[in-house]
Automatic annotation (TrEMBL), chain A:
This is Pyruvate dehydrogenase E1 component subunit beta. It catalyses: N(6)-[(R)-lipoyl]-L-lysyl-[protein] + pyruvate + H(+) = N(6)-[(R)-S(8)-acetyldihydrolipoyl]-L-lysyl-[protein] + CO2. Residues 86-134 are annotated as: Disordered. GO terms for molecular function: pyruvate dehydrogenase (acetyl-transferring) activity. The keyword Oxidoreductase applies.
Automatic annotation (TrEMBL), chain B:
Keywords: Oxidoreductase, Pyruvate, Thiamine pyrophosphate. Residues 23-318 form the Dehydrogenase E1 component domain. It is an enzyme of class 1 (oxidoreductase). CDD domains: TPP_E1_PDC_ADC_BCADC. This is Pyruvate dehydrogenase E1 component subunit alpha. It comes from Shimia marina. The gene is acoA. GO terms for biological process: pyruvate decarboxylation to acetyl-CoA.
Amino acid sequence: MATKILMPALSPTMEEGTLAKWLVKEGDTVQSGDIIAEIETDKATMEFEAVDEGVIGKILVAEGSEGVAVNTAIAILAEDGEDVSAVDASADPAEASAPAAEASDTASAAPATAAVPKAPTPDLSPDWPEGTPMKTQTVREALRDAMAEEMRADPDVYLMGEEVAEYQGAYKVSQGLLDEFGSKRVIDTPITEHGFAGIAVGASFGGLKPIVEFMTFNFAMQAIDQIINSAAKTLYMSGGQMGAPMVFRGPNGAAARVGAQHSQDYAAWYAQIPGLKVAMPYSASDAKGLLKSAIRDPNPVIFLENEIMYGRSFEVPALDDFTIPFGKARIWREGTDVTIVSFGIGMQYALEAAEKLAEDGISAEVIDLRTLRPIDYDTVIASVMKTNRCVTVEEGFPVGSIGNHLSATIMERAFDYLDAPVINCAGKDVPMPYAANLEKLALVTTDEVIAAVKQVTYR
Amino acid sequence: MAAKRAAKKPNVSGEELTQYYKDMLLIRRFEEKAGQLYGMGLIGGFCHLYIGQEAVVVGLEAATEEGDKRITSYRDHGHMLACGMDANGVMAELTGREGGYSKGKGGSMHMFSKEKHFYGGHGIVGAQVPLGAGLAFADKYKDNGRVTFTYFGDGAANQGQVYETFNMAALWDLPVIFVIENNQYAMGTAQARSTSSQDIYKRGEAFGIPGEMVDGMDVLAVKDAGERAVKHCRAGKGPYILEVKTYRYRGHSMSDPAKYRTREEVQKMREERDPIENVRQMLLTGKHASEEDLKAIDKEIKAIVNASADFAKESPLPDEAELWTDIYA
């Protein structure tokens, strides 16, 4: 049976092209793979090969023809001895192109951003039962306990990173873990972030639950391709067949006097990526409860710690097994005049500011987001609907910050409740300087938070 | 170590040879059909064909056992067919349809099969190398005796993460076989213009990883080398490198102007070194098959490929709700 040779699409964007030259003539026999024509696309002149074997029965489009649409029949290929004079030369539209996606007004899965904003339904349940005995712990100890408890519970959980084993952790977070779990499960890696992050993602595809410690998240920049392209996207790209149940953790943000390359807050970067979950705890109890949740989570989790916070002590529930769910903010302080939203070390400034503002008779509600993906929008929106004012606080760069995103969300969902524009307090738009005075200026401060609150409350 | 071994011809039955012939032919015909569907606009984006390289995956798959893993780059259709994934599911993924391996959400470069232990289909050059070592890490952790074939090209062999991975794979004795499919062109850049030392298999020496060069146009030589590598890995001796010299007849992707090599070079390779023709001649001269038998095989393969194209055209577009699924487990 005669078959039509159609004008091919030779690039992802080609819609038409020039049939520059025929390399065969009518009556020639062609084998699959023979070059039969040269075609100029929008990018280059390309050789066009025969797919099927047969005899060129008829050339329908002469060489030199410009603007030949993709899928136009350009020749007819006959079987040996076949008469092709009667073959219809038009392209078969049913064959020719992919069906267009049907326009649908039932795009129900798309998030509703316009129309009536959804009323917030914040989860106000307590993190642990009333009357639970508490103990004082540093953030560092809480993180270690979280890993140790989860490693005891699940033999597929292991820890790898630079200096996590024999050195006992560059910041002593993994202290004692090598002794308890041995070198099979607490693994010192060479200084090779891209490589070991990739190996850990591969191990997670293979059924393990790795915890990858980055000595700091600044060094995770070396591994960012494996975190984003391999860990975050594989579940989607595989149609749900396989994903990366793992945790990338380590200190993030400015430490003290270590300069630009060691002082960056990556919260907003990772929070932008669908497929990742992102936690950034402030207190020791949240550090513990969230890290335990992160290790159990079947998705890749970015767990952002802070060097300055490691040594701070907090009350932690003395429970055998307690977790904090992702996507549930914590209200640290209730108030009526303004909502201050923060996370991680930013909470320090938010809480200090609230304390001082109270002395001036301003009642601030302080919310700790705890996780940035998912974000607990409802708790924020419900609070702003009550206080009608909002200030966000974070240490990261100001452009494209978490505060920017919250401002937009508040505008969409609670515009009519706002009595003042939302103000974002953030780190300054400069690389971190080394000099002590300049470093101080580059970071967000309690005074800036107080000034912002006074501005939105018109005091 | 790192000695270039002469490809000794192992004893091979007519049955085995016939199977390799079928497996290679399926890949070739499948790829030709994919090229055709691309030309018709049914396949979009990037589409990297495997034509010419068929003996590499077919030879190495012949050296595997059930449960062994494989992972590769974006030139992945051949690997999927060779490990037994269904042609319909692969073709329907190429056309972005519901019946594809990734429900149409991955495309040509991103396909996976847990069932067949195929871990992708990766679009970033070299990224699959540490991932493959990670799969081997998991196997060693579980002490299950499995090995992982980690395929990458001569182009990827210049990525830094490859050497980070060699170091750790050797340090931790991971059961991973690094298969460098050297088709001599990194996209349009000839190996001599991109690679300081031509013998890539020797690059493992610095890490203590044995390596050898293999004739990738000879399926039996590939299988033979694959068996040596597997034996080494399963014995707990750590990673192994196979640099398989092969040749890609088609462009890097469908939109390749082919200005970086001559038509004669490609033609010469096709005529003198074609891996399928090679086995065809062995089948005929060894009297393992007649012309008639081979014609029947051709017909059988063509039917599978045509059926896959029909399936890929008829399978519906993914439901719009699929946009929002599989983001989180």
